[in-house]
Amino acid sequence: MTDDVAGVASTEVLATKQRVFMRYFTAILIDLVVLNLFVEYWRHVEIDSFTISLLAAVLLQVLLKLTLAIEHRIGNYFKSKKSAMAKFMRFFSAWLVLFGSKFVILAAINLAFGDDVSFGGPFHGIVAFIVVVVVMLVAEEVMVRFYRRLG
Fold first, then answer.
1. Global pTM value
2. pLDDT, mean over the chain
3. Domain residue spans in the chain?
């Protein structure tokens, strides 16, 4: 049994499923904030409604995590090899997956939301999209590091 502290939801230790849920829930909220800040302050990012931006944040989170899982799987395959070519292929494949996935993710967002989500500017919005994704990932990492320092 746990003691509840006034002002704190609970002091109990979280199970693995709960930790995973909180990790993704928090990441989606961070992505939502980043997306909406870009919508508000940068003319190259347009989203028609808050609901659409929430759904876009969920889709982005799922696709980004899937991309990282694929990149790690390919990287681990080449990591097990010891040749110089394998080392090159590890870094090249990581770059290819991480860079190429942005085009796939952008196409998925276009397919899912059509004109409700728009990235404009140089190279048909690809630069704006990559900037948004990089800022999302940096914001997530900053929050993870901040959280770890609290403990």
1. 0.80
2. 88
3. 16-150
